[in-house]
Design a protein that fits this description.
235 residues; elongated; mainly alpha; Tetracycline Repressor, domain 2
Length: 235
């Protein structure tokens, strides 16, 4: 690659970043359904035809924002888990550390969270390139649960879940454990859903004025969710 090509590539990447930053402000003000390439171009002082050279459609720009949001959240979860492992935390401590990090990311990035976990954008169908970033959080959660299986701290479920997880879910989780943990994939999904649902309920304003300490309530809620699938949290 020549110096000229490298400079051009860097300039393109920098402009793409500015475009996404501008689009993110539009998301915050008007929501994803109202995102418009023309409006973004107008704010940047660009011709809309010039913007189309970087993103071929509104959906392409929306996909870039979604991928960035999933990657930001996934990186946060992965970093929290690595730090927990460095502290030699047990699986319950790892799970709580990741949950707390996810909540803090969501509170700091409410519009990005709403983009990926809020209402679907009318007319938008997420392409396959969003799948990898979207599963980063799930992979972390699966790793924690499998670690609890390995060290014996995950209790076999008294109410067994049916084995309904697809091969795609098994691939994300790293395999299907044997009995008595053969429902662990389904149980892992319960943990992720409980985390996302609890954060969303708070972020979208449904718990305003309900608790004296939102952080303490969140920790307690995560303990209830985890205990329901056989994982004890230090709360």
């Amino acid at each position: 690659m020549t110096v000229v090509q490298t400079a051009r590539q860097r300039a393109r990447q920098e402009l793409e970043l500015v475009i996404k930053q501008t689009a993110a402000r539009h998301l915050a003000e008007s929501g994803a359904a109202a995102l418009s390439l023309r409006a973004v171009a107008r704010e940047m002082g660009m011709a809309s035809s010039a913007l189309y050279r970087y993103y071929a459609s509104r959906d392409a720009l929306l996909t870039a924002l979604i991928v960035d949001a999933y990657d930001g959240l996934g990186q946060t979860a992965e970093t929290a888990d690595v730090q927990a492992l460095q502290r030699q935390d047990d699986p319950g401590q790892r799970w709580l550390a990741v949950c707390r990090a996810v909540r803090q990311w969501a509170l700091g990035h409410p519009h990005e969270w709403a983009l990926v976990y809020g209402s679907p954008v009318p007319g938008y169908a997420a392409p396959s390139e969003t799948v990898g970033p979207a599963t980063r959080l799930s992979r972390v959660m699966a790793g924690v649960v499998l670690a609890a299986v390995d060290d014996g701290s995950l209790r076999p479920s008294q109410r067994r879940l049916p084995s309904l997880a697809t091969d795609a879910v098994a691939e994300i989780a790293g395999g299907r454990p044997a009995a008595p943990y053969d429902d662990v994939l389904e149980r892992s999904v319960v943990l992720v859903v409980g985390l996302v649902g609890t954060v969303s309920y708070e972020l979208f304003g449904h718990t305003v004025g309900a608790f004296t300490d939102d952080g303490a309530w969140f920790d307690a809620a995560m303990a209830v969710v985890a205990e329901g699938v056989g994982l004890d949290l230090p709360v």
